[in-house]
Amino acid sequence: MGNGALSFGAPARRSGESPVDLQTRTAVVTGAASGIGLALSARFARAGVGVVMADIDDALHRRASELAAQGAQVTAVTADLTDPEAVDRLADTAFDRLGGVDVVCNNAGVLGPIGQPLWEVPLEQMRQVFEANHWAHVLMARAFVPRLLEHGRPAHLIHTASMSAFVVGAGSAAYAASKHADLAVARSLRADLRGTGILVSVLCPGRVDTPMVQGLAAPRGAGGDTSVSAEDVAGLVWEALGSDRFYLFSNADAALRLRDQFDDVWRHVSLPSPSPEEELWPAPTATTVATRHRPSTWKR
After folding, report:
1. pLDDT digits (tens, 9 = 90+) for 225-283
2. Is 247 tagged catalytic?
3. Where would I find the H helices in 164-221?
């Protein structure tokens, strides 16, 4: 958590109606030894939710013990989430200990090399970032989703991406690319699971006051102007549980930063700019569709 202290008080309230009858009794949180993952674990614990906290960091068991000393029902599991067998064991442990899983926070991640142009970043470092930020999330989904479907009760998957899934600055190729990939995974899961009772959201925080970014100067064009606490982000997630909110943005400048990005996209679309009375994305004409989807253009 932002200041290193674990706050443990009365259960928080969720607001808004849910499209599914999600009863948040159990949760799994990865990257739970610090930062957003620890704040999520504490937020769940305050509400009496049983939590399996997973991380590779040695601090995990100390943090879990601090929560348990305050009455939380937590289980700490040391796991290398880039190892498929370790992820499967984590899933088995979670369902064995909790009896069922209502929320999975796929939160583990690393920052990796920042400030170097793409051609100077060692390839091995780029691979390590993708292993932690992308492939670990893929492995978690593959391990947990089939079990969730088998259990047949409502659940919610929260994938931690970043504003870097939309806004890319100089010297951040490895991190930003991995977060773009994770956004695509979350969007695909949302489509795959529509109608099953399993909801999917993607968490896209801007700068958050966590140990991962302390002392770090944001890459040019990527930092944003606001900062929030890990507890603020955990509160955002808690409020969204059971709702159909897919994109979860934590920072006040998110709308402006997104508008700048999509304005840039719009400038490069080979269509005239819309007037205020027109739709933002006009429907393609029949001629356009026929041209773009001519069978001879498809290759396998």
Report:
1. 788 999 999 999 999 999 999 999 998 888 888 888 888 888 888 666 666 665 555 55
2. no
3. 173-192
Q: Which of 213, 207, 212 is nearest to 227 (CA)?
A: 207
Distance CA 141, CA 149 (A): 12
**247-249 β-sheet, strand order:** 74-78, 50-55, 26-30, 103-106, 155-160, 198-204, 247-249
- Of 159, 166, 256, 238, whose CA–CA distance to 203 is shortest? 159
Domains and CATH numbers, the chain: 26-213+226-266 (3.40.50.720)
Question: How much is the CA Rg of the chain, to the nearest whole Å?
Answer: 20
Neighbour tally for 68: CB within 10 Å: 15
The DSSP element (H or E) to which 200 belongs, if any, is strand 198-204
Cα separation, 22 vs 121, whole angstroms: 43
* pTM of structure: 0.80
Please tell me which residue in 95, 135, 144, 175 is annotated as part of the active site.
175
Which residue reads 């932002």 in tokens? 2
pLDDT digits (tens, 9 = 90+) for 176-231: 999 999 999 999 999 999 999 999 999 999 988 866 555 555 555 555 678 899 99
Half-sphere exposure of 161 (CA within 13 A, CB side): 28
Rounded Cα gap, residues 78 and 172, in angstroms: 29
Q: How far apart are the C-alpha atoms of 82 and 86, rounded to whole Å?
A: 8
